[in-house]
Structures are given as structure tokens and as C-alpha cells.
Amino acid sequence: MQYLTEQINKVDKLLVDGDYPEAVDILEGILFEEPDNTEALWRIGIAFTELNKQEKALKALDYFFKFDNNHPEAIEAYGCSHFKLGNYGLAKKYLERAAELNPTSSSIARNLGVTYNQLGEFKKSYHIMTKSYNLNPWDYRTIYALASAHIFYKRYAEAEELLKEMLQMDIPGDFKRLALEGRKKIESKLNK
Length: 192
Prior knowledge:
The protein is mainly alpha-helical. The longest helix is centred in the C-terminal third of the chain and has 18 residues, at 173-190. It has eleven helices and no strands. The chain has helices at residues 2-17, 20-33, 38-50, 54-65, 72-84, 88-101, 106-118, 122-135, 140-152, 156-167, 173-190.
């Protein structure tokens, strides 16, 4: 039992750090020994979602839901998998359910905001992005999403502040590039 707890704790750190392949390796080992291990099932669903292996993610999460269909992180992952497959209506349905179950999750709020944006529900998107930022102002993904919403509403000074904040953080290179591109895009609009 202690070993399993240590492995799950290690997986949680790997998921936070974005090391999804190693997390999957550990989780597959756990599930080989215990196919009904719910702690491993929902986590592997998240890892597969992040690795863009949506069919595997949905399969793992569908199986997990036979044990627990009210787990906000699993429901969020399910919604995100549908989002990545282009099923925005289903993504909205599951992310709204996850938000009901865990209204204080900045991650769920951010993903729901991105989904609303994709569906053209821009006011809802902006509102929920602001909520996500207020819940966790240190999440660079949330900062970028809110900055993009500010740009959409032509609030260039607010977007600039967020993008500058983001560039001062230790963030992955792809998000650093997005922040730099965003600043360049609004540069001429700030000087008016």
C-alpha cells in the first residue's frame, strides 16, 4: 500500500511537471497489476488527454466512470478530450458539470472559458477566464487565455500587463513564444 501511495504521489508530480510519458509508464504498471485501480485510471485519462491520445483517454475515463461518475478532474479530462476532438458541445457539457462539482478549480474554469470562446460565447468566456485568473493568478495558461480575451475586447493595456507578467515567469518555450507574439501583435495598438 505504501509503495502504491508513493507511485501515485510521483505520478501527481509528473503530471504537474508535464512529464506525461513517464506518468503513463508508471500508471500502466499499476493498472497491469490492478486493472480497477481508480486512482490510476483517472490519472491515466488525464495523461492521455495531454498526450493527444484522445481515444485512449476516453476509454480509460469511461471505465473509471463505472466506479465514480462525479469526479471533477476526471470529468474535466473527459471534456478536454472532447474539445481536442472538436466536439465542443460535449466539451462544454462535461466542463460545465466539472465546474459545478468543483467551482474553485482554476483549471476547470480556464478550460471551460476556452470552450465558450470556441463556441462563440465570448462574454461567458471572458467572465470565466477572469474567474480562473482570480482563482490562480500564477497559472501561465490562464494568464495567456485571459490576455487573449483582453485582446479580443480591445483591452490592449490589460493584455500587455498580463503578457509581460507571463514573460517574467519560468514557462515552457511554446508559451513564451505565444506571449511574445501577442505583445508584438498589440504593440502598435498600445501607442494610439
